């Protein structure tokens, strides 16, 4: 299996690039984030995930281990193939994916072409524990509860995220900060306390 390619960029297309390694051109599919950093005629070192199908051997390239790791994690979810995983990685950086999953931010996940509400919900549910491996704390069950099922934890979190977004922070950043703060303060924390702690978290 091919795990890494080091050579010269022969050409860059909309969703793939050709890497020339000692005269052999390898067609490598990649996210738009990776392709933006590849320049025809320039050197390139790509981490590669090789997927063998009945009719073809496909190569998927990544500039860093975080993107490759999330590609592997995303493709473990039913309904997420290699193309959808690359679509997600093209839309959200690895850290943003981790924050979105930790914060159960399905709207951010569904921004990626090919990811509908049901698939976004499946990603958020099935991968919430994976976010911890990337330094983002998963949301506790109390933090994600609805007002009717466990006090007002859900509405407090939603209001806190909205307040942080109104202050100019990105939604995925706000979700991640609120998720970490809620786990530290507990699900009964007051809205103003969550917002203050969230601002401190984002200022780090």
TrEMBL record:
<dbReference type="GO" id="GO:0005737">
    <property type="term" value="C:cytoplasm"/>
</dbReference>
<dbReference type="GO" id="GO:0000400">
    <property type="term" value="F:four-way junction DNA binding"/>
</dbReference>
<dbReference type="GO" id="GO:0006310">
    <property type="term" value="P:DNA recombination"/>
</dbReference>
<dbReference type="InterPro" id="IPR011114">
    <property type="entry name" value="RuvA_C"/>
</dbReference>
<protein>
    <recommendedName>
        <fullName>Holliday junction branch migration complex subunit RuvA</fullName>
    </recommendedName>
</protein>
<dbReference type="InterPro" id="IPR036267">
    <property type="entry name" value="RuvA_C_sf"/>
</dbReference>
<dbReference type="InterPro" id="IPR013849">
    <property type="entry name" value="DNA_helicase_Holl-junc_RuvA_I"/>
</dbReference>
<keyword id="KW-0347">Helicase</keyword>
<keyword id="KW-0378">Hydrolase</keyword>
<keyword id="KW-0227">DNA damage</keyword>
<dbReference type="Pfam" id="PF07499">
    <property type="entry name" value="RuvA_C"/>
</dbReference>
<feature type="domain" description="Holliday junction DNA helicase RuvA C-terminal">
    <location>
        <begin position="156"/>
        <end position="202"/>
    </location>
</feature>
<dbReference type="GO" id="GO:0005524">
    <property type="term" value="F:ATP binding"/>
</dbReference>
<comment type="subunit">
    <text>Homotetramer. Forms an RuvA(8)-RuvB(12)-Holliday junction (HJ) complex. HJ DNA is sandwiched between 2 RuvA tetramers; dsDNA enters through RuvA and exits via RuvB. An RuvB hexamer assembles on each DNA strand where it exits the tetramer. Each RuvB hexamer is contacted by two RuvA subunits (via domain III) on 2 adjacent RuvB subunits; this complex drives branch migration. In the full resolvosome a probable DNA-RuvA(4)-RuvB(12)-RuvC(2) complex forms which resolves the HJ.</text>
</comment>
<keyword id="KW-0067">ATP-binding</keyword>
<dbReference type="GO" id="GO:0048476">
    <property type="term" value="C:Holliday junction resolvase complex"/>
</dbReference>
<keyword id="KW-0963">Cytoplasm</keyword>
<dbReference type="GO" id="GO:0006281">
    <property type="term" value="P:DNA repair"/>
</dbReference>
<keyword id="KW-0547">Nucleotide-binding</keyword>
<dbReference type="GO" id="GO:0009378">
    <property type="term" value="F:four-way junction helicase activity"/>
</dbReference>
<dbReference type="GO" id="GO:0009379">
    <property type="term" value="C:Holliday junction helicase complex"/>
</dbReference>
<keyword id="KW-0233">DNA recombination</keyword>
<dbReference type="InterPro" id="IPR010994">
    <property type="entry name" value="RuvA_2-like"/>
</dbReference>
<dbReference type="InterPro" id="IPR000085">
    <property type="entry name" value="RuvA"/>
</dbReference>
<feature type="domain" description="DNA helicase Holliday junction RuvA type">
    <location>
        <begin position="1"/>
        <end position="61"/>
    </location>
</feature>
<dbReference type="Pfam" id="PF01330">
    <property type="entry name" value="RuvA_N"/>
</dbReference>
<comment type="function">
    <text>The RuvA-RuvB-RuvC complex processes Holliday junction (HJ) DNA during genetic recombination and DNA repair, while the RuvA-RuvB complex plays an important role in the rescue of blocked DNA replication forks via replication fork reversal (RFR). RuvA specifically binds to HJ cruciform DNA, conferring on it an open structure. The RuvB hexamer acts as an ATP-dependent pump, pulling dsDNA into and through the RuvAB complex. HJ branch migration allows RuvC to scan DNA until it finds its consensus sequence, where it cleaves and resolves the cruciform DNA.</text>
</comment>
<keyword id="KW-0234">DNA repair</keyword>
<comment type="similarity">
    <text>Belongs to the RuvA family.</text>
</comment>
<feature type="region of interest" description="Domain III">
    <location>
        <begin position="156"/>
        <end position="204"/>
    </location>
</feature>
<keyword id="KW-0238">DNA-binding</keyword>
<dbReference type="InterPro" id="IPR012340">
    <property type="entry name" value="NA-bd_OB-fold"/>
</dbReference>
<dbReference type="Pfam" id="PF14520">
    <property type="entry name" value="HHH_5"/>
</dbReference>
């Amino acid at each position: 299996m091919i795990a890494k390619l080091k050579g010269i960029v022969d050409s860059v297309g909309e969703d793939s690039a050709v890497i020339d390694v000692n005269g052999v051109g390898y067609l490598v599919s990649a996210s738009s984030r990776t392709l933006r950093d590849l320049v025809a005629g320039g050197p390139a070192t790509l981490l590669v995930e090789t997927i063998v199908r009945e009719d073809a051997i496909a190569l998927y390239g990544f500039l860093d281990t975080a993107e490759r790791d999330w590609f592997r994690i995303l493709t473990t979810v039913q309904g997420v193939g290699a193309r959808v995983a690359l679509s997600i990685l093209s839309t959200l950086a690895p850290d943003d994916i981790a924050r979105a999953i930790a914060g159960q931010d399905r709207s951010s996940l569904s921004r990626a072409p090919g990811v509908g509400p049901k698939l976004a919900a499946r990603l958020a549910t099935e991968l919430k524990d994976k976010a911890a491996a990337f330094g983002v704390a998963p949301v506790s069950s109390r933090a994600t509860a609805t007002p009717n099922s466990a006090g007002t934890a859900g509405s407090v979190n939603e209001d806190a995220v909205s307040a942080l977004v109104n202050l100019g922070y990105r939604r995925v950043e706000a979700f991640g900060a609120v998720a970490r703060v809620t786990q530290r303060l507990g699900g009964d924390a007051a809205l103003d306390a969550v917002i203050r702690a969230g601002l401190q978290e984002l200022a780090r």
